[in-house]
Design brief:
single chain; 305 residues; alpha+beta; Beta-Lactamase; 5 strands; 67% helix
């Protein structure tokens, strides 16, 4: 570096001093502008709607914004530059907003970044929120991770998907109805015809039922009449039975009288032997005077005792 000759004159020294002052003022102004820009950048990062973290090649945090800390309810005393990826995820688990395996999740991120690929992941938080995490590899190593709460968006997508599925099902149902409608109309026409025929048949059956009812009433009347006749016949049979019993009694009495008469016949014959003359005279007298016959003896009949 060539040496700058120091002016020997007062004018030269004044000029050099003025130049140095201007350079210092320019440097101060540039530093202020840089600090202002840094503050603006930090403010912009902190006011992002997304959570943001930046990691170096060793997996340590270089930058983290306030939205990321707020999203996962993290402590700024732990999550700050120098914090490792595993320490970060372990702290998220301790706050209760991470429910997966810590080591498996860290290994998945490091593998994806090592391959230079950007892989979005949907992370289900324990409070029901859905977070979309994206890890973008950096050229010099390390990566930038953004986290966005997509719960409402995800639910809206699910609702739209459900509506599409419902519309598809409705379309399928409408198509099935359209193809089925002619068959249904034909079936309804056939049913209407069948209903008319059934109505006519029902009327015929009703008429037949009335006739059957009349016949049944006639049959009941005939049965009642037959029942009365049976009762009359039963009374007549009972009267006949009593008459037969009376006749049987009279026959028994007559048989008894005949038996007594039969038993008295030998005694009469013995008495007739002692009065034979009188009996002979009586016979002669009766032959001479037929008018003297007994009234209960028929003509030409002879008495034999």
């Amino acid at each position: 570096m060539p040496e700058i000759p120091f002016p020997s004159t007062f004018a030269g020294q004044a000029s050099l001093l003025a130049f140095l002052c201007l350079a210092a003022l320019a440097a101060i102004a540039a530093h202020r502008r840089l600090r202002a820009q840094n503050r603006q950048l930090v403010s912009a990062i902190d006011n992002m709607s997304q959570g943001l973290t930046m990691f170096d090649a060793q997996g340590r945090i270089i930058l983290v914004n306030g939205r990321y800390l707020e999203m996962y309810k993290l402590s700024p005393d732990i999550v700050k530059p120098g914090c490792t990826l595993r320490e970060l995820i372990q702290h998220r688990r301790e706050t209760g907003l991470f429910i997966d395996d810590v080591d498996a999740y860290c290994r998945k991120i490091l593998d994806s970044v090592g391959k230079g690929s950007s892989t979005p992941m949907y992370v289900q938080a324990s409070d029901g929120r859905i977070v979309l995490a994206k890890n973008e590899p950096l050229p010099g190593g390390g990566w930038v991770s953004t986290h966005e709460d997509v719960t409402e968006q995800r639910r809206a997508e699910e609702e739209r998907a459900a509506i599409r599925d419902q519309e598809q099902r409705r379309s399928v149902v409408d198509g099935a109805i359209a193809s089925f409608r002619p068959t249904v109309e034909k079936l309804l026409t056939s049913v209407a015809s069948s209903a008319s025929a059934m109505h006519s048949t029902a009327n015929l059956l009703l008429g037949s039922s009335d006739q059957t009812s009349q016949r049944a009433e006639s049959a009941v009347q005939a049965f009642n009449e037959a029942s009365r006749n049976v009762d009359t016949a039963a009374l007549a049979a009972d009267e006949l039975s009593r008459s037969i019993a009376e006749i049987s009694r009279q026959l028994t009495h007559t048989s008894h009288i005949v038996g007594l008469a039969t038993n008295e016949a030998p005694l009469d014959r013995r008495r007739d032997r002692g009065t034979g003359g009188w009996r002979a005279e009586d016979r002669r007298r009766g032959q001479a005077h037929p008018q003297h016959r007994r009234a209960d003896q028929p003509a030409g009949a002879q008495c034999h005792h």
